[in-house]
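Ticket #4471: structure output looks truncated?

Reporter: J.K.
Steps to reproduce: submitted the chain below (181 residues) through the standard prediction queue, then opened the result file.
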Amino acid sequence: MQSSIKYLCKTVSFAAVIVLFSLRTFAQTQSFLVGVRGGTTFERNAGDIQEGDLFAAKFLPWTWGHIDGWHLRPRWEASVGYLHDEGKQGFAGTTGPVFELHHGMFPVTLEGGVSLTGMSRYEFPNKDLGGWFQFTDHIGLNWHIAKNFTMGWRYQHTSNAGIYRRNPGLNLQMLSASYAF
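Returned output as attached by the reporter:
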């Protein structure tokens, strides 16, 4: 049994190296972003819902602006993660556009976006979100610490936009760390 587990670990590690090498080789002409994100709600009536995500994005080939050094750069982002509240967990996945506004070489950028969201669980001990299909929008700040490394903060709102009978919404403050290549 232990030899099977060791073999599986070696196979997965080898596959991960091949995939990362392939992405790095392909990334010479493309721009990607990968990262982790986590946070919680600070609302009194929402309990202590926490979220953790892994996310990936592809920068799109357009940049708008160039007026007085301001640029708006779009990317397409997807995430998978979990929601947790008082021992109840559920998975969530999102996908949608994000727009990043930056000025010249200033290391802080403003971003905002909206995503389609699917949830495996929408009823938690302190919050019933109404249904499995939601929308998540956000606004945040990113600090580009190094050429490829960024730390970020975002305020995000998830709701079903009234397509279900219940629509209380969920507001979270999230911190992130990401790597661009």
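Triage note (M.O.): checked the attachment and the full token line is present. The chain has two domains: 1-29, 31-180.
Status: closed, working as intended.
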